Amino acid sequence: MKKIKLSILFIFFINIVFSQFIYKNSIEGNLSYGRLLSHRNSMQKLIQNNSISGEISYNWNTYGLKYYQKEYNFPVYGLSFNFNNSGNYKNIGNIYSIYSFVSIPISKHKKPFKMKVGLGAAVVDRIFDLQSNYQALALGSHFNANVILRLEKNIMLDSKKDIYLGIGLNHLSNAAFKTPNLGLNFVMINLGVSLYRNQTHLDSIIKDSINRYNKYGIEIINSSALKENVTPYQEKFYINETSLQYKYRKGLKSSFIIGSDFLLNPSLIEFTNKKIQLGIFSGHILNLDKLKLGVIMGTYIYNIKQKSETFYHKLFSEYDL
Predict the structure, then answer these.
(1) Other residues' Cβ atoms within 10 Å of the Cβ of residue 175
(2) pLDDT, tens digit, for every residue of 235-263?
(3) What is the DSSP letter of 209?
(4) Residues 317/293, Cβ–Cβ less than 8 Å
(5) Fewest CB within 10 angstroms: 104, 105, 224, 268, which?
(6) What is residue 6's three-state secondary structure?
(7) What is the mean pLDDT of the segment spanning 73-83?
(8) pTM across the whole model
(9) Sorting pLDDT into bands at 50, 70 and 90, what band is 162?
(10) Residue 190 and residue 182: Cα distance in Å, rounded?
(11) Number of Cα atoms under 13 Å in the Cβ half of residue 114
């Protein structure tokens, strides 16, 4: 574990050094205070003390060089490293995460509120162990996906410094690759300082035109994963999913989507004696030039494991090469 932590710190340091030579960045540091949420009754014992975390971010600011940047009121991209004291050293320990993000203004004001969406990886110190840590039912693996959703605002001090305020949710899970996988959810309040490397300036000349795009489209997407059932055997099952989806793009920013999922899911055999599963869904996609952020809500219509697992959701990102 010590080598893993040192490797993450090294990668983060290299990104910082590399970024200084490429982007007109701002550096941001903040401290967070919050608490682990008990979204299941079985997790109540894991909540002992409040959580404290520290975060360092490198922000890539946009200046209107592309058409969509002005339409979104100049979004910010970046990379963050986060250290989180979970508040339960015995069962969870510390959490180390690194994630990339986009921060999108939600109004046209000069210093608007922004919605930050981040996706990355996290290492958790202590996980479930039947003999030594049987109460830690949240996570069965050290490595987990990390999703950040945060409402934030910068308050200008002068041309080089801002005060950073934020409130949001930090979610960790391994998508049932290793059970148990109830996940960890922290609600946090953030306070920090943002330092500009170069004074922000806006480019009044748009150097690209609006990208042409298809208003309607049909897509077929195939994806694969491994899943583990909550059984003593801890067997992993190969899952394959084919999605047929219809997209309707409404303007520069938004796309709407409907479709169906066809799954080969052998993990269901021991519960329903069937491995084929069908679902239908609808969702919304936010288009940021080549980057796309989406959310899908769906329901299974065939071969449902149990009533509590009738509905499903997906958060995803896409990038057009």
Answers:
(1) 12
(2) 889 999 999 999 999 988 999 999 999 99
(3) P
(4) yes
(5) 224
(6) helix
(7) 94
(8) 0.81
(9) confident
(10) 25
(11) 23
Of 146, 191, 195, 183, nearest to 167 (Cα)?
191
CA 190, 191, 197, 198: dihedral to nearest 10 degrees? Answer: 90
**Three-class secondary structure of residue 46 per DSSP:** helix
Measured CA to CA, the distance from residue 258 to residue 297 in angstroms comes to 10
**Backbone φ/ψ region at 192: left (φ over 0), alpha (ψ -120 to 50), beta:** beta
Burial of 134 (0-12, 13-18, 19+ CB in 10 A): exposed
CB 189 within 8 A of CB 27: no
Each residue of 190-222: b (16+ CB within 10 Å) or e?
A: bebebebeeeeeeeeeeeeeeeeeeeeeeeeee
The DSSP bridge pattern shows strands 143-158 and 184-196 to be: unpaired
The residues that bridge with 165 in the sheet, in sequence order, are 153, 191
Asked if 122 and 96 touch (Cβ cutoff 8 Å), the reply is yes
Q: Which residues pair with 120 in a beta bridge?
A: 99, 146
Please, are residues 288 and 102 in contact by the beta-carbon 8 Å criterion? yes
